Amino acid sequence: MSNLDFDDNDISYESAQKYWSDIPATVDGVLGGFGFISDIDIEGSRIFLESLLSCNKAPCTDLALDCGAGIGRITKNLLLPYFQLVDVVEPDSKFIKTIKNYVGEHQSKIDTLYEVGLQDFNPVKRYDVIWNQWVLGYLLDQDLIAYLKRCRNALKTNGVIVVKENVTSSGKSEKDETDSSVTRSLQQFLSIFKQSKLKRLKQCKQTNFPNGIYPVYMFALVPIQEDYNSEDLKV
């Protein structure tokens, strides 16, 4: 169920936390019953990440941060193959206790687990890539802007923030009453990035997803003051 162009003050962090506390710690659970798209999703993200890591001013591969990590699906299948270490942020205790077992043999490459909501998370300045996927819809606009500013300040030289999120086709925001989340329009995301003093290095639409679900876009963001050129990035 969704409401068009709603007041985002209707988002409730408590309701969202309660919703996720009842969700099983499985791939199908964290993907809302769409576990079958996981491999396609990871492949699209891999191509996007490799384009960032091969650009002229590429981020290093020392440490990545997986935000709203769930059971560690992205940590295991996307970030650990490319980075020496990965930190994880996840507010649900059930999920965070599952991560190391889910990751398996490479769990020694997980450095720090932060059990906290993104609205309260304050990362330190040490990250090469900060990955946010299917989680920013749980933040109020003002909290999202503040969070992205904190992420911006936590980037090392040539560091990149990645946002991969659903985007509405209606051009308006739509609320999901079930989990107390919002799906934003492309223009709303662009406005939020600008207010967060971030600019796009790259923007790409996920391909090969089934019909009937929201379009999914990936954005690579860097601080506005950095001397980057989007032409540096080639897929």
Would you mind describing this structure in some detail?
Its EC number is 2.1.1.244. It is an enzyme of class 2 (transferase). This is Alpha N-terminal protein methyltransferase 1. It comes from Bombyx mandarina. Keywords: Methyltransferase, S-adenosyl-L-methionine, Transferase. The chain has 235 residues and is an alpha/beta fold. It has a single domain, classed as Vaccinia Virus protein VP39 (Rossmann fold), CATH 3.40.50. Helices cover 30% and strands 25% of the residues. It is built from seven helices and ten strands. The strands form two sheets. Strands 4-3-2-5-6-10-9 form a seven-stranded mixed beta sheet, with helices on both faces. Strand 7 and strand 8 form a beta hairpin. Helix 3 packs across helix 4. The chain is globular, with a radius of gyration of 17 Å. The termini are far apart. The N terminus and C terminus are likely disordered.
Instruction: State the order of secondary-structure elements, H for helix, E for strand.
Output: EHHHEHEHEEHEEEHEE
The amount of helix comes to 25-40%
- Quote the beta fraction: 25-35%
Question: What would the principal axes of the Cα set say about the shape?
Answer: globular
So, the CATH homologous superfamily? Vaccinia Virus protein VP39
Overall mean confidence score, pLDDT: 93
Uncertain runs? 1-6, 231-235
Class computed from helices, strands and strand pairing: alpha/beta
Radius of gyration: 17 Å
Largest sheet: 7 strands, mixed
- What gap, in angstroms, lies between the N and C termini? 36 Å
**CATH class membership:** Alpha Beta
Count of folded domains: 1
The count of strands amounts to: 10
Tell me the strand order in the biggest sheet.
4-3-2-5-6-10-9
The CATH topology: Rossmann fold
CATH architecture, by name, is 3-Layer(aba) Sandwich
Number of helices in the DSSP assignment:
7
